[in-house]
Amino acid sequence: MDQHIECLASGVDIKNKSGNLTAPTPQNTPINPAPITSTYRPSIPAISEDMESSSTKGAADNTSSLAGAFTSNPALLSMLQGKLGTLVGRPSGYIDSLPTTVKRRLNGLKYLQSKHADLENKFQEEVLALEKKYLLLYQPLYDQRAKIITGTYEPTEEEVAAGEKVDDEEDDDEEDEDDEEEEKEEHKDTKDDKDIKGIPEFWLTLLKNHPQITETITDEDEDALKHLIDVRMSYMDQPGFKLEFEFSDNDYFTNKVLSKTYFYQDHAYGGDFVYDHAEGCSIDWKDGKDLTVTVETKKQRHKGTNKTRVVKRTVPSNSFFYFFSPPAIPDAEEEIDEEEAEGLDAKLEADYEMGEEFKDKIIPHAVDYFTGKALQYEDYDEEDDFDVSIYTCIINILY
């Protein structure tokens, strides 16, 4: 299902949230208007260049003069670019010019497409129902995992042996015939080791192993995330899902559970659920422990009395916990410029992707991220759609 879910950035016009989500009319109008001037010159001569006539040179001179006129007149250039911009997305007139018989057949195709969309919507509904069904089947495994991590349950000898067998089979698959088998050093537990409860810092370790999420975790965050003992996901009655982060008692906040909910639009488009918005939660920080702000102190001297005073102010600081304060979508009546809209699109997309990462990968395969095995099967690089650069700067540009 999730490969078929579209982000708001591609489905909603931030500047006009009530915008039309249907596909645009086929057209010949170019998406990007051609530049008025260009410094580009071909490095390899075209065949016609060998036979260039004086008239061609004259035309080139006229073109150059015209380009120069635009360059020297920014107001005229801006006006023309604005006119070209208004043409983007408009029908070129091709459809209207078609013969009536062709238009009739085109309407027949539109009917077929509408029937196809109905089936796509039904398919998506059944996929969602199947995912909900299997989440219920997965849940006992997740509950048992949480008990092992927190130390309230010890795996049986049979379960441990089965887990070791899985490791051995995977090692055999990855082992090269020419590689010599390395002997495993058996670690002998000390008395202190035997007193360890569960798997300490399990969730912090796996989050730091994730190539993108680790970029959002500061040194100050780590101490709080050591108390993260479980991450859960659940579906809602309406399209969307909820993430819950459970914490043990800690020095930073009083919440036992921090939550974040992702909502899809009520109606799927083309069989795909479209992301609508996310809602976080309020973190009840203990006094002086808010990780999302830094307290700056500054001394000020009064010119008249020469007395000094200390002024304190809080400024936003990078923190993983901004995840629970998602970017807000402006009201339909609120107008924002194009640059702000594009920036908001990027923030919303990054926030949505992070939620999907927890839902589809981290929660189902937590132990593989803890051991690092999951990274062997992920293609994380600079060209990946899951853009680390967005994650590293989202807090800076949003807060």
TrEMBL record:
Biased composition annotated in UniProt, kind: Acidic residues: 155-184
Stretches for region Disordered: 16-37, 153-194
Comp. bias intervals (Basic and acidic residues): 185-194
Entries under InterPro entries matching the protein: NAP-like_sf, NAP_family
A Pfam family it matches: NAP
Domain of life: Eukaryota
Species of provenance: Thamnidium elegans
Coiled coil location: none
A cellular component annotation (GO) from this entry: nucleus
Record's protein name: Nucleosome assembly protein
Sequence ranges of Polar residues compositional bias: 17-37
Family statement drawn from the similarity comment of this UniProt entry: Belongs to the nucleosome assembly protein (NAP) family.
GO process annotations (BP): nucleosome assembly
